[in-house]
């Protein structure tokens, strides 16, 4: 009667399920191309990495999980989330108790992607088949703890077992990439590449902007005192990242606003920023201008440009003050692309060799603005559903709203975008199943034929991401 | 071949229908928790209430119905809607003729929730199984008229037959609640509780604001001449409502804008308002400030705070002028929550004992703003789909867009929000069937298991509303 | 296993498919009522029309197709799209090579409506059953070329074979309608009527506005030197269009902004416009005012008023400069109707004999603004999904989001809105199938019964459009 886990995420219609199965079979064992994510490269340096406890592994790095517990009145302190003031783990609660709290409240996650990722991860990676609950919490904790000390569960062993073809990390522009260097020199064959993320030296309203620029001077060996030296330093960093294997950059902005400033205007605002004397308007214009500059550099150096638009970061002031960033309090805002991207597209939209991949958190823009834009401009591609929308319904809405206008080939496949390393296979698997099921529905309604569907499912699972991120060679 | 009415609103997929049936069976006879609505308490005072004609019962109070007829060129006067000038029922048309007009045009409602509610209400409450049409209009009128004179169809008898556990009305802050008092003293055991709705004394651009404040002075026994006395009077009314059984307040605003004013600023605007000298900006800021004040009072007195955001009231000027408010001419506008609610949430969002239930008419905010917000802030919950969205598709979109990010447990179950008293069971039934069917789909796709679904369906039908509105005791 | 083409676009659920089939059978052979579109009337003048090559027929006029190829790096020049500078076809590529490029890249259209329309058109009109690909490109070209020289494929023969009852073209206010006149005088019985589209003489920021006004003076025989003479000239043109069979007007605007200007204000702005000295604000206000004026004229002359809102035209500056308008670079923007249309609706919304049909490109407004508005105002109707949304998912979203609130009878059926003449039957067929399938789903879920569905499917396919556009006589 009910769906077996082998057929999970497929339609209950027998005809659709049968086609979905056959499409999924085609892709389920393809290598994972992890083109965008937040895995810590440090864990892949050492051949003897210490995961800490199951809570260190599964709860503390996962803001999807602790934000939900917080929303129901559980304080972050109770969950062992390190606060800023205390310098980290002071007065850390017993992780066994934290795990018990999580399991006692696991019903909160019913119907959420977190519950699916963790269920599939526990079963497929750690061999734990039981549904977690209050009664079995400690038993599962024991089982996890044992596994984490097992050499098979070392990050590099997982990398190989997961069949990861390439893993891109996301790294500050000022990062020395010493972990990446160390991985390279270790002789290990896993392909781990950096991604150039300059937000902290580009968004002039970032905390400690002047210090970040000092750091930029140091790592680039260019004394950044003016707008031209600033641009030179950024170009130096991009060259370095590219030498270290990067094929892409990544840029976050609350809005997609772009504007070209004259060099004089840019210099004036930059100088104000160094002195910490900027207005909100300055920040908006400078960020908008730097998106143009980064596109110009991408035309020159070939790095794929990722834009992540629409998150109001650190919305909960008290949480930000005590715990810092990335604490599950980033909330989307409505976005506009048609007008905001016009200055960028007028300059670089027709550059055939440029690839700008846009991500956003306002699903209304899929069919209204983004699909028409990527369905026209050669330089523009649409990234997969991001963040809250990296879910079964989110993925379905993405396909349904985007493909009719943009076509599949102006999208860029999947990226897992996660710091939860052992959840990577579960995330790709959910995408692959959702893709197969969606295609099966199209076959049955006579929109595409099975021949097309069999090509498309491989494109969605593997090829599109690899092509878009220039990982072919 | 076609769906029997017993299985109405369920998927046609046999596997899904079977699970939906079993889930629905679990909840179909649970008591009705009517936490928010607009039933007139007067009808529950008397043991001998006069319903008037079938048109008085079913058409005149139902702006969903007469707005649709109006949209197709039938004047409100033809339908017996009382106009303001004429002091009500002057020159009322023959209600039999009105009923005939309604039945002649009933095809207009094909596919609308109004048609489902009325169909189910006529069948289940009044025993009328025929589909209404021009030919049987008078026969159905006769049948309804006969029932309305039958003691079994008295409001209290219906209350008991409907299995209503609690019914919350919505009452002006200046209401003396004498009907509620009278129900209490009558010895009848039905639980009917008021809800504190202060819009007319808070929205300073309301018609007759100064008179409303005079009325507030009278009922509170506090001479409201200043901002502090105004606040004291509001607090007095809240205490009184709470004594009369209220567990919640309700606030309507066109936008979710919130702002904290200093006491001095609040006083200045309040004095201007008493003199009728406010600007649009004054009204916006004062309403935004009072939402903060009301949240502060809720922290103190424990009343649940409901926010209904996003309706442009009385859009049709001529209809408003001749017929007044609530005439089917309220039209939604786009809403923004992420920025607008920040001042409120920075102050009170972490209050664990506070419950703010948000309702809105802009479905795009479900996944983009509201689900992320209620999935983070302890004080925030999301109310069920409101008004135009209290429909089969509206409910499905709500679940599909909200639960993945917010979880089910940051939502608040159902409320019927109606003044159409005999339609209450049909409305809850539609919600319960839609919930069961949605859960069945999730079971079949391996997202939740049947054990979870059986708990969730009870939560959705009964528990969540009761908990959110603090009706447990 | 997979869907046969006879059942294309229907659900895979056997019960739903069976009902859908029976509903579709009812409407598949009904005449086509083509109430809005862009067919060139010239082709229906001659009894010996030269289609040119298959590329002239299928690719060059279809911006849906060449924008997608352009988005993947194929230049418009390569596709034979005539540029402005070169005065058209200079250096036109070999159309056989263009066709080969199109077929080589046909995979780009997988899942798009373009692929469905072309597939069905090739099969049903031209008898080509093969899926197009690189290998069979030239063979298909040959087959198409042969057909185009066959008298059976003359436009008038197609008109009759397509069973077109009426075809409305869209024509500039300054058009002399000589093609329409010529069709009338030819003795051919096909009903081809013009539509009055005054954008070029109303949107004062249009290129060459003053010249357009000169042309208006010429064709109207009214010397347009002032606002009153301008209005008189427009009224003259409307009378002329009506005499030539027009039943409707059509107005495009980026936003739905409406405002009533005094005659004095209108005159001042109009004079500035003649001198080419307007501001953006002038243009916005004048367009908003002229929408009111056009509604006033419609009340007087009975022409149905169509509003197409929300397209940012000619977004790609370089493409506009080299190739001109309608080059696949029109991108939607977010729209607002509740506030913007209020001035118009306050004046004319209650006019029972007036019909304003709104089209838009922001699907979020369907359920939030447009369905509530058309579900209330007698003068307002909602047009079918437009442009990017005239697709299977777009149509389903339209029905799901609109009908619950607006009812079906405040919508206006289908229009094909195309300049791709031979694709007309495929477009109507897709709509009819989508309607039948949607109704079948409603029957199975007990929302409507089969009796209702059988009436509704005819309304959707035929009656609603005919009634809304006053084509009954």
From TrEMBL, chains A, B, C:
Pathway entry? Carbohydrate metabolism; pentose and glucuronate interconversion
Keywords from UniProt, A to Z, are:
Isomerase
Q: Which residues form a coiled coil?
A: none
One short Pfam name that applies is UxaC
Q: Does the keyword Isomerase apply?
A: yes
The record ties this protein, via InterPro entries, to:
Metal_Hydrolase, Uronate_isomerase
Q: Name one GO molecular function term.
A: isomerase activity
Supply the EC number(s): 5.3.1.12
Q: Which reaction does it catalyse?
A: D-glucuronate = D-fructuronate
Q: Which NCBIfam families match?
A: PRK02925.1 (NF002794)
Q: Which family does it belong to?
A: Belongs to the metallo-dependent hydrolases superfamily. Uronate isomerase family.
- Recorded protein name is Uronate isomerase
């Amino acid at each position: 009667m009910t769906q077996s886990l082998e057929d999970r995420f497929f339609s209950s219609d027998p005809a659709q399920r049968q086609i979905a199965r056959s499409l999924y079979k085609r892709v389920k064992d393809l290598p994972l191309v992890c083109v965008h994510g937040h895995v810590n490269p440090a864990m892949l340096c050492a051949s003897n990495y210490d995961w800490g406890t199951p809570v260190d592994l599964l709860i503390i790095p996962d803001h999807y999980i602790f934000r939900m517990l917080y929303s129901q009145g559980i304080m972050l302190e109770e969950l062992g989330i390190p606060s800023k003031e205390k310098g980290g783990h002071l007065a850390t609660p017993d992780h066994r108790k934290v795990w018990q709290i999580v399991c006692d409240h696991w019903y909160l996650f019913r119907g959420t992607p977190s519950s699916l990722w963790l269920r599939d991860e526990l079963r497929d990676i750690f061999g734990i088949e039981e549904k977690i609950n209050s009664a079995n919490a400690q038993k599962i904790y024991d089982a996890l703890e044992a596994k984490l000390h097992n050499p098979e569960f070392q990050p590099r062993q997982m990398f190989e077992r997961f069949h990861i073809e390439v893993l891109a990390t996301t790294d500050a522009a000022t990062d020395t990439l010493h972990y990446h260097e160390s991985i390279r020199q270790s002789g290990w064959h896993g392909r781990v590449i950096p991604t150039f993320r300059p937000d902290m030296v580009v968004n002039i309203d970032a905390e400690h902007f002047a210090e970040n620029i000092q750091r930029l001077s140091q790592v680039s060996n260019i004394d950044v005192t003016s707008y031209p030296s600033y641009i030179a330093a950024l170009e130096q960093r991009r060259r370095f990242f590219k030498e270290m294997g990067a094929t892409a950059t990544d840029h976050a902005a609350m809005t997609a606003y772009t504007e070209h400033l004259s060099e004089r205007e840019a210099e004036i605002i930059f100088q104000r920023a160094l002195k910490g004397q900027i207005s909100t308007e300055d920040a908006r214009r400078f960020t908008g201008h730097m998106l143009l500059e980064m596109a110009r550099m991408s035309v020159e150096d070939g790095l794929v440009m990722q834009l992540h638009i629409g998150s109001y970061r650190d919305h909960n002031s008290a949480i930000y003050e005590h715990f810092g960033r990335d604490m599950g309090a980033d909330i989307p805002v409505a976005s506009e692309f048609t007008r905001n991207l016009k200055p960028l597209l007028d300059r670089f939209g027709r550059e055939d060799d440029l690839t700008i991949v846009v991500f956003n958190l306002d699903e209304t823009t899929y069919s209204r603005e983004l699909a028409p834009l990527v369905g026209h401009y050669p330089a523009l591609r649409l990234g997969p559903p991001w963040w809250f929308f990296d879910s079964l319904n989110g993925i379905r809405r993405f396909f349904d709203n985007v493909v009719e206008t943009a076509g599949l080939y102006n999208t860029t496949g999947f990226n897992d975008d996660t710091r939860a390393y052992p959840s990577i296979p579960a995330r790709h698997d959910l995408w692959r199943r959702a893709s197969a099921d969606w295609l099966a529905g199209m076959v049955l309604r006579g929109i595409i034929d099975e021949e097309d569907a069999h090509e498309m499912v491989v494109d969605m699972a593997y090829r599109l991401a690899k092509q878009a991120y220039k990982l072919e060679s």
